[in-house]
């Protein structure tokens, strides 16, 4: 074979190989996109079926586009308290956060869909998690503003109070725990909540800080932490008030606000998409809080969600938007 022919064959082989690589890459990219943004939530374990709202009616007052065909994905994380829980009968997600999202999306005329993901994929180890950073969804629900989170995340206006934090033990064991000295003490924390080890290490008038790695344990929910307290796996837990279960925990310290730089908001990224989310969410939230609907949602904390752990409307809702007592 002559040199020009060999050169031509080499070029053809290279082009065929390149096309094959592009095809495989496109297939993988398509699979990943379907896995994390499937609007029908039909991909099984990653995004189980959840509630959705499709609100596309025009709102001329908002200055928003006449029609926005996009679906905004909003993630929830933990299902065992008044903020969000799984209804045993309907297998639908209920709770205060769901009520707020429903109202804001409707008033902002946006198409919103709830998805589930671990809290750690929203924020972990002092930075935005992979789920939020990679835009598997647009916002994470119900995150208190903290100093660490402000470094890499962006927040909407607040819609609920951020609770203080305190140490807890199993019932009957608080007398044996000294919150002013954490030397060699094992502490349990809940994944995704602002009462984390970073906050605990900021406590003043407390010996034994910072905590060593072998003193720190994280749990997915309050039930798992209660089990660890009961078994002695940890000596105490450090939690926010909203996750306190009086049946399985006992308060073992005074409340502190050392973890907080603001109230409870929606957390997103400081990107163009994230800032757009903040703009329309704040518009819808303003309409919600300036009407009686916000108070009605707060009333549901007791009338509808009262069988779940957590405070009442005056513990959770922003009191400046509620009728005077």
Stretches where pLDDT is under 50 for at least 5 consecutive residues are 21-63
Count, helices: 8
Radius of gyration, in angstroms, nearest whole number: 24 Å
Order of helices and strands: HEEEEEHEEEHEEEEHEHEEEHHH
Strands of the largest sheet, in order across it?
1-6-2-9-16-10
| Count of all domains | 2
CATH class of the largest domain: Alpha Beta
Q: Mean pLDDT, as a whole number? A: 82
What is the molecular shape?
globular
Identify the CATH architecture of the largest domain. Answer: 3-Layer(aba) Sandwich
- SSE class: alpha/beta
Major beta sheet summary: 6 strands, mixed
Under CATH, the topology of the largest domain can be stated as D-Maltodextrin-Binding Protein, domain 2
Description:
The chain has 325 residues and is an alpha/beta fold. It has two domains: 52-162 and 262-321, D-Maltodextrin-Binding Protein, domain 2 (3-Layer(aba) Sandwich), CATH 3.40.190.10; 165-251, D-Maltodextrin-Binding Protein, domain 2 (3-Layer(aba) Sandwich), CATH 3.40.190. It contains eight helices and 16 strands. The strands form four sheets. It has a six-stranded mixed β-sheet, covered by helices on one side. α2 (96-107) crosses α6. The radius of gyration is 24 Å and the shape is globular. The model is unreliable at 21-63 (pLDDT under 50).
Task: Give a topology summary.
Layout (H helix, E strand, L loop, with lengths): L2 H35 L14 E2 L17 E6 L3 E2 L2 E3 L6 E2 L1 H12 L3 E6 L6 E2 L2 E2 L1 H4 L5 E6 L9 E2 L9 E5 L17 E4 L6 H4 L15 E4 L2 H10 L4 E5 L9 E2 L12 E5 L3 H18 L2 H12 L9 H4 L9
Parallel strand pairs: 2-6, 2-9, 12-13, 12-14
Antiparallel strand pairs: 1-6, 3-4, 4-5, 7-8, 9-16, 10-16, 11-14, 11-15
Helix pairs in contact: 2-6, 2-7
